[in-house]
């Protein structure tokens, strides 16, 4: 039985977007997700934004952070984990 666009909710697209872009979904789920994307412009735009972000991030080179910024960022991350 073929999936229908309503078989997948928008929250499911968000949940599976990484696996979708990495081609790691089982064929049935992939087909249902792609059908949803064909009918849901906001989800289609979201997937394209994630795809673009991945592509652009891959082009970034390693850069040095201004003095002290790396330590501040690490401290903020540690504090966030402790909460």
Short description:
It contains four helices and no strands. The protein is mainly α.
Counting DSSP H or I runs of 4 or more residues, the number of helices is 4
Which structural class fits the helix and strand makeup? mainly alpha
Order of helices and strands: HHHH
Mean pLDDT: 86
Distance between the termini: 47 Å
Can you give the helix content as a percent range? 55-70%
Major beta sheet summary: none
Can you walk through the features of this model?
The protein is mostly helical and 83 residues long. It has one domain (5-82): Arc Repressor Mutant, subunit A, CATH 1.10.10. 67% of the residues lie in helices and 0% in strands. The chain has four helices and no strands. The chain has helices spanning 10-21, 27-39, 41-57, 69-82. Helix 1 packs across helix 2 (27-39). It is elongated, with a radius of gyration of 18 Å. It starts with 9 loop residues before the first helix and ends with a helix. The mean pLDDT is 86.
């Amino acid at each position: 039985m073929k999936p229908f666009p309503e078989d997948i909710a928008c929250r499911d697209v968000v949940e599976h977007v990484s696996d979708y872009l990495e081609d790691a979904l089982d064929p049935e789920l992939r087909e249902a997700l792609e059908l949803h994307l064909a009918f849901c412009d906001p989800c289609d735009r979201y997937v394209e934004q994630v795809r673009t972000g991945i592509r652009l991030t891959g082009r970034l080179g390693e850069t040095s952070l201004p003095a002290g910024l790396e330590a501040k960022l690490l401290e903020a991350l540690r504090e966030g984990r402790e909460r």
